[in-house]
Input
Amino acid sequence: MQKRTLGQGLEVSALSLGAMGYGKARELPDRAEMITLIRTAVDRGMDFFDTAEVYGPWTNELMVGEALEPLRDRVKIATKFGWDIDQETGVHRGGVNSKPTQIRSAVEGSLKRLRTDYIDLLYQHRVDPGVPMEDVAGVVKDLIAEGKVRWFGLSEAGAGSIRRAHAVQPVAALQSEYSLWTREPEAEIIPTLEELGIGLVPFSPLGKGFLTGKIDSTTTLDPMRSSIPRFSPAAMDANRKLVDLIRAIGERHGATPAQVALAWILAQKLWIVPLFGTRKIERFDENIGALNVQLTQTDLNEIEAANIHISGDRYPEEHMRLTGL
Ligand SMILES: NC(=O)c1ccc[n+]([C@@H]2O[C@H](COP(=O)([O-])OP(=O)(O)OC[C@H]3O[C@@H](n4cnc5c(N)ncnc54)[C@H](OP(=O)(O)O)[C@@H]3O)[C@@H](O)[C@H]2O)c1
Output
């Protein structure tokens, strides 16, 4: 698989697989299949995998750890701290927590669950307004010095927080939502990353499935997506125009809408590594096929000229408030 380089020389496959899935109920029954999928992804040449303490909490890291233990030296594992997880019970108490003691305890837990003695890329999952960014970056700097962590990342952080963190411990990657229907990072975040030499790992590059063209207002959605304004039936009907456009562009390349959605991100900057999620090997193969789709300048111009307005926010209000801090 082609490689790309994020910040601080972090070289990874040009696409990354996220193991989040949607909700606890779906996580456990599919565990064996997901382990097979993750190992198949490594066979296909992917070497960059994403999880987080909060997914489950903990169950997702346990699954990723089991899947990758025999392949550890061939892969880079990214995980995240930063939600307020009770370190005794694993219960998410709600809200964020990046106090230094919480970070250290979360990292010790992640190392055990991931069956490894180092985390390649450790992200703060959301900025904690109660803890100065310098303190957070300082703890990660110490963890790097101790050999427990190799690279530092942030997620959904604002430009000011990125600069403050980077001044203490250089940041390798920002993981934030960016896709054909979430283009807000182009205004300030992407120029900031470019200036500081930080890579971008866009999550939800397929618009949580919508951009694949397989979801519409008649689809029964899981509770997570049902809570998102742009997945309301009316918003999905309005946003269909974007899927129609990428389907038409894809037809010229023999590509699916999912492949066009990923190829479009790959065409933006060489230091961007899209992070998609899927539970199915055939979809995994379809998605990595995006690496063979070369969009032309005409295709890219057509998307700009269409200037499609997206209906509905990408998160419910209480989640939106935690982004861009
Ligand atoms: N940092 C953060 O705050 C944050 C937030 C969200 C996500 N993430 C990370 O980013 C990863 C990906 O995010 P995501 O899952 O929200 O986004 P996504 O990749 O945009 O969408 C995944 C959804 O699309 C479906 N899908 C994937 N490929 C498909 C295809 N070829 N055809 C039809 N449907 C397809 C998947 O269904 P199936 O699974 O059924 O195939 C799944 O429901 C997560 O796993 C997680 O690691 C991070």
Summary: The domain at 3-207+269-293 is CATH 3.20.20.100 (TIM Barrel). The pocket of NAP is lined by residues 18-20, 50, 155-156, 175, 203-209, 212, 214, 258, 275-280, 283, 286-287 (CB under 6 Å). The mean pLDDT is 95.
